[in-house]
Design a protein that fits this description.
single chain; about 170 residues; alpha+beta
Length: about 170
């Protein structure tokens, strides 16, 4: 979908999410502002995305700036593949959007849904807890914070990553 430069096309949710994630990965350790967002949107528009999609993406990226989640201290890692083995027959796998490693870990998961319902939040909580287990295993440090970032809504959802909560995720 990125090669189309002559006509406008409507992106599906997955394609919009991919564009947003790519930008956030590119700027994971670099400060950016509205100018960089507008430049990025201009490039995406030249590639053929619709004005509706451009507005959605710009809103998500602007909300990221407003939430301040990019200003956490520590080393930033993005798009981390992991396998967390629960036992010899069961493993959790995934790709962690972002981990910020300092004395402890922070897990950040970006969502671009228009609205996160309570049911959706419950399913995402399990996913983010699994990511916390993965970060703990990969980096050998405890995860002190996990955040689900609803970019479209401009909201942070703090996820309980206490030992008790993570232990319940395992079994």
């Amino acid at each position: 979908f990125f090669e189309n430069t002559t006509s406008t096309q409507i992106l599906n949710a997955s394609e919009r999410g991919k564009i947003i994630h790519e930008f956030l990965e590119q700027y994971a350790e670099v400060k950016f502002g509205e100018k960089e967002i507008q430049d990025y949107i201009r490039v995406q528009t030249q590639r053929g995305i619709s004005s509706e999609d451009a507005e959605f993406i710009a809103t998500c990226l602007s909300n990221y700036l407003k939430l301040g989640i990019g200003n956490l201290p520590g080393k930033v890692y993005t798009e981390i593949p992991y396998i967390y083995r629960i036992d010899e027959n069961l493993a959790l796998t995934g790709i962690i959007d972002r981990a910020v490693i300092d004395n402890a870990g922070t897990v950040i998961d970006f969502k671009t849904n228009a609205h996160i319902t309570d049911d959706l939040l419950r399913s995402y909580e399990f996913q983010v807890k699994a990511y916390a287990l993965g970060v703990n295993q990969i980096f050998g440090i405890p995860v002190s914070r996990a955040v689900l970032v609803s970019l479209q809504e401009g909201k942070l959802y703090e996820i309980d990553v206490s030992k008790q909560s993570l232990d319940s995720c395992k079994g």
